Amino acid sequence: MKNATIDLPSLPRQRLGDQIADVLRQQILLGQLPPGKNIPERETAAALGVSRTPLREGLLVLEAEGLVEMSPSKSPVVANPTFVEVSNLLLVQSALEGLAGECACDEASEGEIDKIEDMHKMMLANVQEPDQIKFFQIDMAFHEAIVASTKNASLIKTHKQYHSRLWRVRFLSARHRAARDKAMIDHGRIVEGLRLRDKEQVSSEMREHLRRAIDNIRIVFAEEETSTAGNG
Amino acid sequence: MKNATIDLPSLPRQRLGDQIADVLRQQILLGQLPPGKNIPERETAAALGVSRTPLREGLLVLEAEGLVEMSPSKSPVVANPTFVEVSNLLLVQSALEGLAGECACDEASEGEIDKIEDMHKMMLANVQEPDQIKFFQIDMAFHEAIVASTKNASLIKTHKQYHSRLWRVRFLSARHRAARDKAMIDHGRIVEGLRLRDKEQVSSEMREHLRRAIDNIRIVFAEEETSTAGNG
DNA sequence: GACCTTTAGTTGGTATACCAAATATGGGTC
DNA sequence: GACCCATATTTGGTATACCAACTAAAGGTC
Asked: What is the β-pairing status of strands A68-71 and A74-78?
């Protein structure tokens, strides 16, 4: 096993547990720690070059976020949500982004809207590129930027957590060209509404954008169903 | 100091850290641990009859919920949110409850709506009682019951967290008779909409109900301002 | 040969011990 | 007498050690 020690700054600017949570969260989002994977405490702590105490604190953070499930006498495990659970998550996220759209019309500066529009244009330029990761990352940044422009710290934090839990499945969904095309249409209307500061339009477009995503994700789960059935 | 040891079941059915989080959360909500109060780890652990490790895990839970703030080399402290922060929390909660109202129209059973209506009637019977705590507790249970009827686990959990953070300030707000009267009107429309399964009505009533609460809470902060100014 | 029992090993849960940073306090100096 | 520096104490952060529950495997019995 390669020694995956994370770099420890001599001055602990941040709690080690939070840094560990960040590292593990990245690994989960990127699929290096796939859903269902065990995360034994001793082994993982040794691999990261830390003790069990901060590792455990990091795992508890991820458990609170819903990315990891812990149960007594069993190794913590990367969450593997069902379609219904993901659907529920998307509903909540749609409500959060609906609010974000409304607040952004009040709070976003022109400069922030400029940057949001830039992201939209960059996505348009990449919509037919084979490099899906780039497209997807800008997609996520687009949504994050709108939420950030509301300056509502609670909204930003809660949205970020749902973002993490939905990252993987939305990434799988973004592989479909049709889903990307639909997303671009929605994004265009959102940017347009932001320019006009039209709360009603932006709010409902963002809300419905995510609700439509549920259908795309149903396809992803159906594919996974057939592929796992083929393996068994 | 009285020994406030919590009862430890010989079989740890639940993680000790979570139990500790529950105990401290109750104490914060009830004002036994008022905003700004220090929660030193060693002292508190000793008072609860546990070691620092699980106490710390409990504190981290409360920090994630926003009820406690932790910073290096300083005792954890009970959060003391500003009006702007509370206002932001209420906006998010309004979005969550708006979604809950919509989903409840689809998912709530007739029996669940019966219980929700019972709570409403019980509040009507207590609206002019001096026992504000009882009125307030039913008020909170009323909102919780509607959210629970959606069967959306993520929504329930996130709503519960915001519920905790808003508990104290909403309790202070509920002392005002005018606020209670207004609440009863809103609740009546909500129950009516639930019976009719009118998503649009229930959703917008619940959303606006909480947004109106912002004004009541502004009054609470104004009062606190003057009272602290008087003390200084 | 199959099933039950026991035991060894692994897991997470908790307590304790150690460390470093920050702070408050007391003594010394100007 | 006031201000500065050194030190002792208290804080949270981390590592380690211990424990109880669960699991799985091996050996004995029917």
From this structure: antiparallel
